[in-house]
Amino acid sequence: MTNRKRNFSEQELVRQEKYQQLVQASADPFQETKFERNYTLAELHKKFGEESKDQLLAMPEKEKFVKVAGRIRLFREAGKKAAFVNIQDQDSSIQLYCRLDEMGEKAFAHFRNLDLGDIIGVEGIMMRTDHGELSIRVKQYKLLTKALRPLPDKHSGIQDIEEKYRRRYVDLIMNPEVKKVFQARTKIIRTIQGYLDSLGYLEVETPILQNIKGGAAAKPFISHYNALDSDFYLRIATELHLKRLVVGGFEGVYEIGRIFRNEGMDTRHNPEFTSLELYVAYEDMTFLMNLTETIFRKANKAIGNPNVIPYGNYQIDLAKPFRRLHMVEGIKQQTGVDFWKPMTFAEAKKIAEEKGLKVESHFTGVGHIINLFFEEFVEKSIIEPTFVYGHPVEISPLSKLNKEDPRFTDRFELFIIGREYVNAFSELNNPQQQYDRFLEQENEGKSGNDEATEMDLDFIEALEIGMPPTAGIGIGIDRLVMLLTNSESIKDVLFFPQMRPRS
Question: Record's family (predicted)?
């Protein structure tokens, strides 16, 4: 391992010198193990926020005595005998009023030597200043952590946008709004869990390391398992294991967990992301459409949003029924090309090439061309919440065929402002058809489709035991949080998104 030599700034050297002075004075703050608080700062505002200056003055001292802790964010001196300091904890901030005659000459001198970013515990009395600001009149303090590295300037903040994501801990300190996004994320997930639990569905865990690439069309991460001397994949979906549980007799199972796909990074994609997958026996695609609308509305309400929410320059109404659009009909509306008409692959390919579309070498059916048209001409045109259904069989290896038109499957995706949020379908439970679909996927892989799934004979055997009619759905949790918190990038809703290494 190569040792990197660190270059310290002048401020960092000054802070290190201050720390060494504390150590020499037997006051090393890093030896502190606990500070007993009787209030968080949010609790202070809740209890004393309505009290006037006179009411606080009249209150018995023991009723307004507080012990709190937080990080110093602002420090300004008021002459040589007083100072105003702002500290913040997880949910709030408050002003401290510090006086030499209250704290004593030695303690006050040490207090003035503190730095922005230091974490302190204080004891004091609640008061209100002449300007009406709720404050703590400090009696004594304790330095709990010395910040050896300065925070960014309060007004200019983090200048490099990538540093915002690399050093999320600094971003959280500097921008309280960022914390609200992640608190909303947790509420959204808890709300979904609570709702699905109320329906009697069981939350489960399935393997992250899998020996077969399956359940989705995606490139996997590959890891070598030394004990078995075999390559394994980080899962690209939880689908096939969850459906095994339906075969085993569970009539509603779901998992909210990490998925890994070895693909690009942009505002909508991170190589590891969080997905909800749910499988319900004896239900179909239409049931899942209704369930999806309910989940979106409940999650939106849980974080205090109105029914109509902003996203970028758009206003999205989550209260009205979501639009439903057949994929072929959407293509016809946008391009005039009618894929309802029976045609050969050669005919479809010619139409695609006339439209300037690239037909990949592994495309073998008209369904591939239909999907190509949808992605190029329809997807970005969708603004309001829209269930796009009727996906061709060629791109839906795990979906049940539509009874009226077996060229298509009983599958839908939910699109909002050109982005996919949900993928769902009536599950294919015919083991013979599933075997044939896996073979077709294998052939696509041999023809150059590195996202094709692999043959999973154990899953085929599970279907041969018998899986009831089942509806399955996958919801991208990160994109849902982005939508409901009006966040532009997936990096804004992941604590620690993947980043390119610092140069």
Answer: Belongs to the class-II aminoacyl-tRNA synthetase family.
In a domain, 477, yes or no: yes
Residues 120 and 188 in one domain: no
Contacts of 291 (CB under 8 A, 6+ apart): 278, 473
Question: What pLDDT was estimated at residue 3?
Answer: 55
Integer Cα distance of 96 and 127 in angstroms: 10
Q: Was 427 annotated as part of a binding site?
A: no
Residue 465 confidence (pLDDT): 97
* Beta strand ranges found along 146-212 (DSSP E): 202-203, 209-210
The dihedrals phi and psi of 388, each to the nearest 5 degrees, come to -95, 120
Coarse DSSP helix, strand, coil percentages of the chain, rounded to the nearest 5 percent:
35, 25, 40
Q: How far apart are CA 423 and CA 410, in angstroms?
A: 11
Output the pTM of the full model. 0.91
Domain assignment present for residue 179? The answer is yes
**CATH code of residue 224:** 3.30.930.10
Q: Is 43 annotated for ligand binding?
A: no
- 414 and 301 housed in the same domain: yes
Distance set, CA 261 to CA 222, 368, 440, 451 (Å): 10, 22, 22, 10
pLDDT at residue 452 in the model: 81
Q: Return the closest-CA partner of residue 437 out of 469, 409, 403, 417.
A: 409
Domain boundaries, position 120:
10-151
Q: Tell me, what's the pLDDT at 501?
A: 79
Last residue of one domain, picked from the residues 136, 151, 166: 151
